Amino acid sequence: MVRQIVNQTGFEIHGIQLTRGLAQRLADGRWQFTCPHFCNKTMYPLVTSASPNSMWVAGNSDFFRLEGGLPTPTNRSSLSGGRLRGMKTIENQVLALQFVPPTSSQLIEIPREGPATTIQEFATPYNFMKIADGIIYLALGHLDTITVLELSLEDFSVIRKRVWDAPQISDILGINSIANRLYLAVRFMDRNSLLAMEETAVELANSVYQTTVPFDDNGTLLTIIDSRLHELNDSTLTLTPIDTPEDIIYEHFHKTPYGNFVSTARGLFRFNGHGEPMDEIFLMDELHPPLLDGLSGRELEFCETHWADLKRDWGLPEEPMVRSLPSEAQENSENESSADTHESSTVSSTLEKQSQGCSQRHSPYSWLGSMGLIGALFLRQRYRRLLQLK
After folding, report:
1. Helix, strand, coil fractions of the chain, as percent rounded to 5
2. What is the C-alpha to C-alpha distance for residues 199 and 221, in angstroms, rounded to an integer?
3. Contact 7/14 with Cβ under 8 angstroms?
4. pTM (two decimals)
């Protein structure tokens, strides 16, 4: 599944973090999987955007730049994943939370080259960071207590610090603030839970597998509990299951400046609102095998085994899918229009409306089911498009 959108330019996504590795979309349209062998075999290391087509990765012994599916070390071992606890790119500025032994932490800025700069030091060893709506949230779940510190992103001044009792707290998984109320997804020793942080920490739901913080869908709060959608009433703090297709396994919502997305067991989709069709952005079936050039010994063995396990567990095809890049799709569309100028404008209008309604510009695999509904001219145009996609 897609844990995080890392690289995005406008409405196009170029890099993602999966639960068991990383993937980047290359210039030819392929989604290139990267084996996490350089991240101490951590399935989801800390990552953030370095450029539109590359990402920073906190590796096991260095700070790497990942581009074209291949990691390049930057010779900055002090920024390895062993000490970083959070990382985020904000307008070309990379901010990170770093553990400082034995029991403290600090907020740092990571430049493109050279050592990091310390912005602020903390006596508390915070191990979770999120940046949203101009606020930096630092959190720690430890010794039966949850601590959340809020900083201003503008000048890094302290807004407030709050502490709640939370017996058997193990880890902080997510934070979101909606209508001046803070919600946390956490892991206790025996369960995962969704908490509303009032005067006390109010447990709204718990699960064996997964709870996510609420997502604001134009005033409707949605959350995912064990892969199923629920609606949260923020007045009564009650959850109501939403009837959704059993074959859709929901994982995470992703809010970006260019729209909302949701990841499922199949891939990543543009989320147009509950009940509306979702547009395909990336499917797991598009993953191409990792590049193994230069690997040997245990690293090569790990990546070969890792990829074989992924193919089995995720049911990946032998021949990965490749969808057209937006520029290619536009060029194909223009070529079709030029070749079919003698055909009626009614057919062109129908095609445009169906493309918008079924999100076919996002999904070159989804048009087969509707071929019989339109006429011979439509079939001929679709046949040409299929040949071009191949």
Report:
1. 20, 45, 35
2. 21
3. yes
4. 0.82
Torsion of CA 303, 306, 310, 313, to 10 degrees: 170
Please give the Cα distance from 73 to 59 (Å, whole number).
9
Distance CA 130, CA 239 (A): 25
Q: Which amino acid is at 254?
A: H
Environment class of residue 236 by beta-carbon count within 10 Å: exposed (0-12), middle (13-18) or buried (19+)? exposed
CA distance 274 to 262: 11
Give the rounded distance of the alpha carbon of 49 from its chain centre: 12
The helix/strand/coil state of 324 is coil
Query: Burial level of 75, CB count in 10 A (0-12/13-18/19+)?
Result: exposed
Q: Tell me, what amino acid is at 1?
A: M
Rounded Cα distance between 124 and 199, Å, is 21
The token pair at 359 is 């999100």
Q: DSSP 3-state assignment of 349?
A: helix
Sheet of strand 135-142: strand arrangement: 128-132, 135-142, 145-152, 158-165
Our CA angle for 245, 251, 254, nearest 5°, is 115
- pLDDT tens for the chain, 390 residues long, are 899 999 999 889 999 999 999 999 999 999 999 998 888 656 678 999 999 999 999 998 899 999 999 999 999 999 988 899 999 999 889 999 999 999 999 999 999 999 999 999 999 999 999 999 999 999 999 999 999 999 999 999 999 999 999 999 999 999 999 999 999 999 999 999 999 999 999 999 999 889 999 999 999 999 999 999 999 999 999 999 999 888 899 999 999 999 999 999 999 999 999 889 999 999 999 999 999 988 999 999 999 999 999 999 999 999 999 887 765 545 554 554 444 444 434 333 333 333 333 333 333 333 333 333 333 333 334 433 443 444
